[in-house]
Amino acid sequence: MARQQIKYPNVLVVEGKDEELFFDALIEHMHLEPIQLWPMRGVSRLREQLKALRNAPGFAKVRSLGVELDADDDASAAFDKIKGALKAADLPVPEMPLESAEGAPKVTAMILPGGGRPGMLETLCLESVEGDHAIPCVQKYFDCLQEEDIDLPGNLPKARVKVFLASRKVEVFSASRVKPARRLGEAAQAGDWPFDHEAFEQVRAFLQEIAS
Length: 212
Prior knowledge:
Number of strands: 6
Structural class: alpha/beta
Radius of gyration: 18 Å
Strand order of the largest sheet: 2-1-3-4
Shape: globular
Helix content: 40-55%
CATH topology of the largest domain: Rossmann fold
CATH class of the largest domain: Alpha Beta
């Protein structure tokens, strides 16, 4: 398998495919200088992927490196994972999320949804559409599950995003074959998330810092 090469001086390490598609769409929306997205394909591979990035052809040209991770239940623990992985890869280690560590390259980290809160990218996406007419319907769906004594999904933000996106119009191929609801990243590419919403303010600032 050919080694992934670094093409641009600005690189962002992302968790997975949805994040890759989301950030790709947001970078384009913001008209930023190119930022190469480097998927880690799972949080457990963060340390491995940062080492691979450090040793990738073209790394010497990297001026700015960003790393994003979901907080899940503990934002502090997620940031500790990033710091440990950066240190293991012999890269500059920022002291705080969204505060860059100067060096070669400059390194900036963000824990989503930001502000030290628990949650994930899905949390921000839901906040950005909280005024959408479909949101009360989404809530009624989960209320109904509880009323019927049906166990709620373990990851509610991801489940809520899936139900919300089921309300979005998708392309119909034929009467017998309908494209299923989009995933979060596909929805970003299709313009379903309002990128100018205040919910994404810190994410936009994060990308500006990487691109600057």
